[in-house]
Design goal:
mainly alpha, Arc Repressor Mutant, subunit A, about 45% helix, about 10% strand
Length: about 160
């Protein structure tokens, strides 16, 4: 039991993935050198950069968000990081959550509306969409939705 490493939360792994690829999953493949430049690791040694990337990729691979693409010459050196379909979907979901426009400093503040009036009435479709989003954000949880029709006698008693 002693040496088992505790896995970080899915949200923190998504943050690392977002650092490597940005919020838009295009392109879905990045060279290792591009990643080092994007995150500002150009001034570190190759060995330090490899260790840094290996640490990030351990968790990213565990959640199935990306995979390393190795050199065909030695099948050892990682040349690219390739997003998986799950990683692309997760980054798209993340970009949709953060896509709400920020108010400009010139515009007046929006009026404060009580939460009861500003929230739309939930429907089965909106609840199902929220559950889908929760499943993507929390793959380590089994989230289920069960809907059954009540019997008419029970409805009449209400």
């Amino acid at each position: 039991m002693g040496n088992r490493r505790k896995l970080p939360l899915y949200a923190s792994v998504l943050d690392n993935l977002k650092r490597l690829f940005g919020e838009a999953p295009e392109p879905d493949r990045r060279s290792v050198q591009d990643i080092y430049a994007i995150v500002g690791r150009n001034h570190y040694t190759d060995e330090q950069n490899k260790m840094w990337l290996r640490d990030r990729m351990t968790d990213i691979k565990h959640y199935g968000l990306a995979k390393p693409v190795r050199s065909p010459l030695d099948n050892k050196t990682v040349e690219y990081i390739q997003l998986t379909a799950k990683g692309k979907r997760a980054l798209r979901e993340l970009s949709l959550q953060t896509a709400a426009p920020l108010p400009s400093q010139d515009s007046p503040p929006a009026p404060v509306v009580p939460a009861e009036r500003s929230r739309p009435e939930p429907t089965l479709n909106t609840v199902a969409e929220e559950i889908k989003r929760l499943r993507v954000l929390n793959p380590n949880l089994q989230i289920e939705l069960s809907i059954t029709v009540r019997e008419e006698a029970a409805l009449a008693a209400r």
